[in-house]
Specification:
With about 400 residues, the protein is mainly α. It folds into 2 domains: about 1-145, no CATH class; about 150-400, no CATH class. Helices cover about 60% and strands about 5% of the residues. The protein is built from 16 helices and 5 strands. The strands form 2 sheets. The protein has a 3-stranded mixed β-sheet. It has a two-stranded antiparallel ribbon with strand order 1-2.
């Protein structure tokens, strides 16, 4: 691995070069390498700082122009492989450090090198790896954290809302849940909402779902600029049991340009999880914006199950309006949808108490704060304000997409 930014070739140094000399003093080359690694990290932070000084330039020249070529080009290569390259990437990184750790432990056991010095070497390479990957990450995708807020670009900044305006938005979302649920019942699909797609059909279903969501992007007014772009199809993860244990449903890896999705998601969870990953792929980085994008893409789909998945996510808006004393919406959604929402709330509360989930949440919170998202993981719930502001900015969106009440007895 060559650090071009610093002029140091790590491969030139053998492990023995890192160990202390007979006087107990560290080799000057070791100290120099530590400083060079830190300098590389500072370069990455400097790039981030400069980008943060001009979000409008990042938006105009990077996020809306240069960046979109990156996943498009990466897709040309990653679509030649059936296996998720994201899994291969993580496997290689983890394997290198695990094998190095085992090798160092063996050398320490044999008395060939002090364990403390071996740990220093591993720590040095961790710093180097993190520094280089952080720079590549920022260039391939991470600068999108420094772009202009979506609400500012699309013209729906927060504004004063009257009670009747909020109630209209609440009724729109609640009515969307009722109608989608009723239509699924009429189509004989209501019973499949909580079940997963059969394993033999899952890959084709995932690709078809991505194409459906592409149409949702095109049907949403503020995302029309993505229409000419076609990115690679998503891939299923072979490590899904581990991903499920960690509480991750889908993700986008900038280093490979791939969307990866957990196997075995329910037919209700799959559309929204995939829409979130597609939002990442298109350059949306902040969690509140990603959730808001996925919501709009889903409810603007022509597929009833996808619409239902989006409107069910919108139930968090209904709960926020209920807490504000606007009206009671959840109890009037129909037994199936009301029970589904409360079941999902209970599952979410349970998962947040898990050790693995808390660990991942802590790492993700650190990741967001390093990328200057001040609220960290608390920003996940910021989509409520964005969704409300989106409809307040143009109430014609409510009337244009207004759905009709389902027939009596639909649920």
């Amino acid at each position: 691995m060559t650090g071009k930014a610093t002029g140091i070739n790590v491969a030139e140094f053998e492990p023995e070069d890192y160990y202390e000399d007979e006087d107990g003093l560290e080799s000057p080359s070791v100290r120099r390498l530590y400083w060079r690694a830190i300098q590389t990290l500072l370069i990455a932070l400097g790039i981030q700082t400069v980008a943060g000084l001009s979000p409008s330039m990042v938006e105009s020249y990077y996020s809306q122009r240069l960046y979109l070529f990156i996943p498009w080009l990466l897709s040309i290569g990653n679509q030649k492989f059936v296996t998720s390259l994201a899994e291969v990437f993580f496997l290689i990184i983890i394997s290198i450090f695990v094998l190095w750790g085992v090798w160092s432990a063996i050398k320490a056991y044999q008395g060939r090198a002090p364990l403390r010095d071996s740990l220093k070497v591993i720590f040095l390479y961790i710093i180097w790896t993190a520094s280089v990957l952080f720079i590549v990450f920022k260039l391939l995708w991470g600068l999108n954290y420094q772009r202009q807020p979506l609400a500012e670009v699309a013209g729906f900044e927060p504004r004063y809302a009257r009670t009747e305006d909020l109630d209209e938005i609440g009724n729109y979302i609640a009515n969307g849940i009722r109608v989608s649920s009723g239509n699924l019942l009429k189509q004989g699909l209501a019973g499949q909402v909580k079940s997963a797609v059969s394993p033999d059909r899952e890959p084709d279903t995932l690709v078809a779902m991505a194409k459906t969501l592409e149409l949702g992007f095109k049907a949403t007014d503020i995302f029309s600029r993505f229409e000419p772009w076609t990115f690679g199809s998503p891939k299923l993860l072979e490590s899904s049991p581990l991903i499920r244990f960690l509480g991750i449903r889908s993700f986008y890896l900038p280093f490979t340009g791939e969307i990866s999705v957990q196997k075995g998601l329910t037919q209700l969870d799959l559309p929204f999880a995939l829409a979130r990953a597609m939002a990442y792929q298109r350059g949306f980085a902040r969690e509140d914006e990603v959730n808001m994008v996925a919501f709009l893409v889903c409810i603007n789909s022509s597929d009833e199950l996808v619409r239902y998945s989006g409107f069910i996510h919108g139930a968090k808006v209904l709960k926020a309006l209920e807490r504000a004393g606007i009206a009671n919406y959840i109890d009037g959604l129909g037994n199936d949808s009301t029970d589904l929402i409360r079941q999902r709330d209970a599952e979410a509360a349970w998962s947040l108490g898990g050790v693995a989930s808390s660990f991942v949440d802590g790492l993700f919170n650190l990741h967001l704060r390093i990328n200057r998202v001040a609220q960290g993981t608390k920003s996940v719930d910021g989509d409520v304000d964005l969704i409300v502001s989106y409809f307040l900015a143009d109430k014609g969106r409510l009337r244009k997409e207004q759905v009709k009440a389902p027939p009596s007895g639909a649920e």
